[in-house]
Design goal:
Its main location: membrane. Belongs to the Ca(2+):cation antiporter (CaCA) (TC 2.A.19) family. The chain crosses the membrane at residues 69-91, 97-117, 129-150, 162-184, 205-226, 241-262, 311-335, 347-370, 377-404, 410-431, 438-458. There is one protein chain. By secondary structure, the protein is mostly helical. It has helices at residues 19-23, 27-42, 55-71, 82-91, 96-137, 140-151, 155-184, 199-227, 234-266, 268-271, 273-285, 288-302, 310-333, 335-342, 346-371, 375-404, 414-431, 438-457; strands at 187-188, 191-192, 195-196, 435-436. The strands form two sheets. The protein has a two-stranded antiparallel sheet. The chain has a two-stranded antiparallel ribbon with strand order 3-4. Helix 6 (140-151) runs antiparallel to helix 7 (155-184). The longest helix has 42 residues, at 96-137. The radius of gyration is 25 Å and the shape is globular. The chain starts with 18 loop residues before the first helix and ends in a 14-residue tail after the last helix.
C-alpha cells in the first residue's frame, strides 16, 4: 500500500516544503501538528522520510522506524529503562541486591524484544524453517543465563532454572490459560462449556515430558543405589552419574531432532489448526477443488506481513542478544550475595525468579490467545516451550558443561525431581481428554504455588547437602 505523503501530519522540516511552517502559526495547525506528530510516532506501518531521495534522510528514517516498531512491539517494553541502569550498576559495583533487581527487570523486556525479532525473521523463512528458528531461539534468554551461570559454577541455579522453566510453562502458563480462558468461555449456569484443543498433540507432548521425567528419575535412583554402597567413594559415584547423564543427554537430543521432524515435516498437520480446519472444510464441501479454494482464501486472509525486514530484524536480534548476555552476567554474578543478604535460596531464585524473566512475554501471549479461544496455539506455546527445555536445552547444557569442564548432570535435587515427576503426572491427567475448564486451571495454578512456597521455605544447604554443585 502506497503511504500518504501529502497529509499534513507526515510533513517534517527534513522532507516537506514550507507549508508545514505556515501551519505552526495557526492555532488549529499547532493542534493538528501536535496530534499528527503523536499519530506519526505511534504508526508502526510507516515513518516519514522512508521514501526520501536523500540517502541520509532515508537512512535516519529507516533507523527511526526500526526503533519505533521494536519499542512498540510489546507492552512490557517500558521496562527497557532498566537496561542502562542495570548495566551501569553492574559496572560501577553497586549494591548486589540493587544490581540483581535492576538486571532482573531489564531482561524481561529484552526477552520480549528477542521473541519479537525471532517472529519477524520467521515470517520470511516459511513455516518449516520459521518453526525451526522459533524452536531454537524460543528460550534463548534462559539458555544465555544458564550458560553464564554454568560457566560461573552455579550448577544448582542452572538445574533449578531449567526445571523452573518447565514447571512455569506446564503449571503457571497452562494453568492461567485454562483458568482465564475457562472463565470467559464457561457457558451459562447449568450448561457449562469447555474449551477444546488437539488431544493428539497433548498426548504426544505429554509422552515426551514423561520421558524427560524418567531421564531425571533414573540418575536420582542410581545415586541412591550407589549411596547405599560403601565400596565406592564420592568421586566414583559422581563419575557414574556423569556417564549416565551425558549418555542420556545425547539420546534426548537425538529424540528432540526426531520430534522436530515429526512436528514440522512428516506430521505437521497434527500441529497446525489451520491445516486441520482446511481438511474439515474439504470434507464438508464434498469436493477437493472447492476445499482448496476455501483453504487458499483462508491462508491469504491469515498470512501476516512482517513489520521489519530480515536484515533489520537480524540486527535487532544481535544487539538484544548482546544486551541479554551482559545483563545476565551481572544478574548471575550477584546471586551469591542476594542469597546471603536477601534470605532467598538458590533453588527459589532458579526455580521461580529466573523463569519469570525469560518467559514473561510468552506467558502474556499464551493467556491472550486462550482468552480468544485459540487453545491449540496456547497449548503450543506452553507445552512446546517445555519440550524445548526438557529435550533440548537441559541435555545441551550437560554437553556444554562436559566441554568446559563443569560437572553438570541430570541428577537434580531429590525434592526437585519429585516435584517435576508429580507435575508431569498431574498435567498428563489434565490434558489427555483434549478439553479444559477453569477448575483444571485453578488446580494447576494451585500446584505451582505449593511448589513455589516449598522452595521458598527450604534453604539451599538443607536439600541434599551431600551433592557437589561445583561450588
Amino acid at each position: 500500500m502506497t503511504p500518504k505523503t501529502n497529509s499534513s501530519h507526515e510533513r517534517t522540516p527534513l522532507i516537506a516544503n514550507g507549508e508545514s511552517s505556515h501551519a505552526l502559526h495557526d492555532g488549529y495547525g499547532i493542534s493538528n501538528g501536535f496530534f499528527g506528530s503523536i499519530k506519526s510516532a505511534l504508526d508502526t506501518s510507516h515513518t516519514p522520510g522512508m521514501d526520501s531521495n536523500n540517502l541520509a534522510v532515508r537512512s535516519l528514517a529507516h533507523t527511526r522506524h526500526v526503533t519505533k516498531v521494536t519499542l512498540l512491539s510489546s507492552p512490557v517494553n517500558f521496562l527497557l529503562i532498566a537496561v542502562p541502569f542495570g548495566i551501569i550498576g553492574g559496572l560501577a559495583k553497586w549494591d548486589p541486591v540493587a544490581v540483581f533487581v535492576l538486571n532482573f527487570f531489564a531482561i524481561i523486556p529484552l526477552a520480549a524484544v528477542l521473541s519479537f525479532a525471532t517472529e519477524e525473521i520467521s515470517l520470511k523463512l516459511g513455516d518449516t524453517m520459521g518453526g525451526l528458528l522459533n524452536a531454537t531461539l524460543g528460550n534463548a534468554v534462559e539458555l544465555i543465563v544458564s550458560i553464564i551461570a554454568l560457566k560461573d559454577g552455579q550448577i544448582q541455579v542452572v538445574q533449578s532454572s531449567m526445571l523452573g522453566s518447565i514447571l512455569s510453562n506446564l503449571l503457571l502458563v497452562m494453568g492461567m490459560c485454562f483458568f482465564f480462558g475457562g472463565l470467559i468461555h464457561r457457558g451459562t449456569n447449568g450448561h457449562g462449556t469447555e474449551q477444546e484443543f488437539s488431544s493428539a498433540v497433548a498426548q504426544t507432548t505429554c509422552s515426551l515430558m514423561t520421558l524427560a521425567s524418567a531421564s531425571l528419575v533414573l540418575p536420582a535412583a542410581l545415586y541412591a543405589v550407589l549411596d547405599q554402597s560403601d565400596k565406592h567413594d564420592a568421586a566414583e559415584k559422581q563419575q557414574s552419574i556423569l556417564v549416565l547423564s551425558r549418555g542420556t543427554s545425547v539420546i534426548l537430543l537425538i529424540l528432540y531432532v526426531m520430534y522436530l521432524a515429526f512436528q514440522l515435516r512428516t506430521h505437521s498437520n497434527l500441529f497446525d489448526p489451520r491445516a486441520k480446519s482446511d481438511t474439515e472444510a474439504q470434507l464438508t464441501n464434498g469436493s477437493s477443488q472447492n476445499g482448496h479454494e476455501v483453504a487458499g482464501e483462508e491462508e491469504e486472509e491469515e498470512d501476516e506481513e512482517p513489520s521489519l525486514g530480515p536484515v533489520a530484524a537480524g540486527l535487532v536480534l544481535v544487539v538484544v542478544t548482546l544486551l541479554v548476555a551482559l545483563c545476565a552476567e551481572f544478574l548471575v554474578g550477584t546471586i551469591d550475595k542476594v542469597v546471603e543478604k536477601g534470605g532467598l535460596s538458590k533453588g527459589f531464585i532458579g526455580l521461580i525468579l529466573i523463569p519469570i524473566v525469560g518467559n514473561a512475554a510468552e506467558h502474556v501471549t499464551a493467556v491472550v490467545v486462550a482468552i480468544r479461544n485459540k487453545m491449540d496455539l496456547a497449548m503450543g506455546v506452553a507445552i512446546g516451550s517445555s519440550i524445548q527445555i526438557a529435550m533440548f536445552m537441559t541435555p545441551f547444557l550437560v554437553i556444554v558443561g562436559w566441554i568446559i569442564g563443569r560437572d553438570m548432570s541430570l541428577h537434580f535435587e531429590t525434592f526437585e525431581t519429585v516435584a517435576f515427576a508429580v507435575s508431569i503426572l498431574v498435567v498428563t491427567y489434565t490434558v489427555q481428554d483434549g478439553k479444559s475448564n477453569y477448575l483444571e486451571g485453578a488446580m494447576l495454578l494451585g500446584l505451582y504455588i505449593i511448589i513455589a512456597v516449598a522452595f521458598y521455605s527450604i534453604p539451599s544447604d538443607v536439600v541434599d547437602p551431600s551433592l557437589n554443585h561445583g561450588d
